[in-house]
Amino acid sequence: VTVDPNHAGGGFKFVYTRWLVVRNNFSHHNSGAGMWTDINNIYTTYDGNRVEDNTHVGIFHEISYDAVIKYNAIRRNGFGKANWVWGPGILVAASPRVEVYGNTLQGNFNGVTVVQQTRNESASYGPHVVDDVWVHDNDIDMSAGGVTGFAQDIGNTSLFNTSIVKF
Fold first, then answer.
1. How confident is the model at residue 6 (pLDDT cuts 50, 70, 90)?
2. Opening angle at CA 85, ends 80 and 89, nearest 5
3. What is the Cα–Cα distance from 124 to 101, expressed in whole angstroms?
4. Distance separating alpha carbons of residues 4 and 8, to the nearest angstrom
5. Contact 5, 80 (CB under 8 A)
6. What is the pLDDT of residues 73-85, one digit of tens each?
7. Degrees to nearest 5, angle at CA 102 with 8 and 20
8. CA–CA gap between residue 92 and residue 42 (Å, rounded)
9. Partners of 10 in the β-ladder
10. Among candidate residues 41, 54, 73, the one with its CA nearest the CA of residue 11
11. The dihedral sign for the CA sequence 45, 81, 87, 76
12. Which of 53, 60, 63, 143 sits in a 20 to 30 Å window from 104, CA-based?
């Protein structure tokens, strides 16, 4: 069976969880994301994981809420989706209240990226918007190029004046 890495492939994908803790795992050499929370997850913690050599993003928190991504080692991810803000070590997409700190990122296509998208999925805990996102105290090796930062995919730059995203 072939699984599309853009929708369901990778190491794992969780949906509709509460208080999920992903700790001390090794996710590597997957076709797709290494670790992925997608659709209305809330109070997620990624802590102390090793995420290496996945074709897409290392850790992906998408259209979900309230996450802490801390103390992970994330290496050589994203080269199968190497364009724009896709293919980073860590990606936060259309998700509020996320803190990313203490991570080591080396050799990924991009570092840490945050992106707002227009999403039509049911929103269980408020709108799927990038807001109150804080990325700090990470060791990000960008020697291979790539980007780290906040982008929008909705055609509306006013988001940059209304959302709280700190790097």
1. confident
2. 65
3. 26
4. 6
5. yes
6. 999 999 999 989 9
7. 40
8. 13
9. 33
10. 54
11. positive
12. 63
Q: Enumerate residues 6+ apart whose C-beta is below 8 A from 127.
A: 96
Q: What are phi and psi of 80, to 5 degrees?
A: -85, -10
Residue 41 backbone dihedrals phi, psi, to 5 degrees: -80, 145
In whole angstroms, give the CA distance from residue 41 to residue 97. 12
Interatomic CA distance for residues 134 and 3, integer angstroms? 33
Both tokens of residue 140?
Answer: 């990000």
SS3 content of the chain, % helix, strand, coil (to 5): 5, 40, 55
Residue-wise pLDDT for 112-157, tens only, equals 999 999 888 889 999 999 999 999 999 999 887 899 999 998 888 8
DSSP letter (8 states) at residue 10: B
Distance (Å, whole) CA 34 – CA 89: 9
Residue pair 5/29 in contact by the 8 Å Cβ criterion: no
Distance CA 56, CA 78 (A): 4
For residues 13 and 38, the answer to whether their CB atoms sit within 8 Å is: yes
Edge to edge, what strands does the sheet with 165-166 contain? 21-23, 44-47, 67-70, 98-101, 133-136, 165-166
Residue 81 identity (one-letter amino acid): K
